[in-house]
Amino acid sequence: MITLIKKEIRELLSKSALMFFALMALMFVFLGQTLSSTIEDSAVKPVIGIIDRDSSAYSAIITGTLESAAELAYSGLDDTAALTEIQARGGAAVLTIPRGFQSAIESGQKAEIQILWLMQGAGVIDSIPTGSVQAVLEASIQSLSAYLIEQHTPLNADTILSPVSSSHDTLFKGRLIEGATPGVVSGMMSMRTMFIPIIIMMLIVMGSSSVISSMGLEKENRTLETLLTLPVKRSHIVTSKIVGSGIVGIIMGAIYMVGFISYFNSIGSQAGSLADYGFSLNFADYLLIALSLFGALLSALCGAIILGLFASNYRSAQTLTYPLIGLAMVSMLMTMMLDFATLSLPLKTLVFLIPFTHPMIAMKELLTGNYLLVAGGVVYCFAVTAILVVVATRIFNTDRVVLGMTFKRSKGTTFAR
Question: Which domains are present in the chain?
């Protein structure tokens, strides 16, 4: 019994499996450090601008608290200069205190602070600066409430405890969205894009796993060796596998697109506010998404064929799916947590180089009119596919297609795993 358990452990924890587990662990360590660094950068003092048109004692309390708790990038009366400066600094918002701020409170009414949010991205982490500004603003309102209590002002309790309200407008991708905070805009985006990376990751994992498993079974059953002995060119064999994988990719992509369009339309009918601000998709957009998905699936399936060539049996083939699963998971997490536009240049390069990323970000980028990135991603995915086809063809013309992964046991002796 113990001997059988040891045998199973040795087979499951092969050198190749341990190597891929280590690579995946390192990949997720890097991803965790990247996300942690991004969160820390977002959690620092928010960069804001203040326009105080009232210049009163009450507005001074608000601006004083804001200046102490946030990084003040602009203080003046010029709306254009404030917007330009905050955009240049990558700031979060411009807060305007209108004339009559103090007089409104003294008359028992709520005064209003106008907030223009500068939304940098629609990722989960991109909303952290918004929360920081709202917390700072709430602290400044509490300071004003404390001052009113100390002065024994003859106002009702509601006015003293909540003397200020706020109006919100958001500038996102060159579009002004009136009456909405970045959280609202991000929420509307998330309703349409949240599950897309997960679904695409599942498609890539299932498609690549089936191809690699098929290659392992062909070797285990000696089907591939039989094919190689027939008067058929090896290039024809690999071409048939790639074409077959392409057909599978088309079927999977078509099924996905039918469900995706239905999902998008149903969500849009219930929360169609984005269309009111110009964030919508047309037939050309759906076509680009389909091409991006097909290119990514095809590159994954071709990569699976190459990895499957190194398998010697069905069990070893299962191990070889780990690299593709790891890349698909990294793409999924990066696109769900972060917006491509707000990534640093090294991270943008890394994310762009993973073909699976492009269909995951395609819809969000098309909603904001970034056709160049999506079209470039489509071209890149098909270029990667073409390179992988060449690599697969060359490997098929070697003995590796029969031997799989070989390791030296002793001098002059090899064995396959």
Answer: 2-39+194-416 (no CATH), 44-187 (3.40.1710.10)
